[in-house]
Amino acid sequence: MRLFENLTATPRPAWPELQHLVDEASVSVKILEADDATSRRTLEQLQVTTGSFLGAVVVHTGGLLIDQGWLRVYGSPGGSGGLVGADDVGDDVGPPDPGRLPDLAAMNEFPPTPEASWYAAHGLVVAHDVLGGTYALNGPHPGSVGRPGGPGEMTYLAPDTLQWEPLEAGYAAWLTWVLDGGLTDFTEGLRWDGWEAETRGLAGDSGLNFFPPLWSKEAHEDLAATSRAVVPMSELVGVARSTAAQIDGADLGPLGTFGGPVG
Questions:
Q1: Half-sphere exposure of 240 toward its Cβ, with a 13 Å CA cutoff?
Q2: What is the pLDDT of residue 100?
Q3: What pairs with residue 232 in β-bridges?
Q4: Which residue of 11, 46, 120, 214 has the lowest C-beta tally within 10 Å?
């Protein structure tokens, strides 16, 4: 396995480009402070270089809070969970509690120390949105674990359908699209008047539970008639996995670990 020093010794690091995209983003972005020990262990397990966007996020950030906190992209947060290099686009943006944003390694149950034989068979959970929607980066054989798309492509578990959707883009293209405001059209029909005030104040390990649930006929017909409550994200993804199994027997696979096994 390549060591951290080798993985970061790239002639074309991706971090300057990513910082520029954040500076020019059409949505609000908060960059959380990274923890050196966590970033080292995570990068060595991933075996990607900092010439990639994934490597840059892991090494240089404790995660990203994007679009009023709607989307949480996982990195390597430290215990203090401070904000560094944060760039706000828009007015009156209050940051969620960054100290409770999970890290990529824990989310995907990485080994305590890097192991050459270990890999995430179902791909990597790299982000969640406040609805419990799960963004995953496909592993080498997505079809064998019921995931659409090709190896190294992003997929999304939609909370309103409980099905995986191919995004037909790698991690870098997906994150670039998000920073350019791609979520606006992507979330059409899933946002309500005043959603910003509800999402920007949420902790990174919490989300919004809808009743009736987003996948129900009632929510599809009239989202405004639903009620919302703040719940742990572990509850949202756990219910999504168990509900899919009950409805059609589908196994959605791992949707991320929040302090313990999910689903």
A1: 32
A2: 65
A3: 206
A4: 11
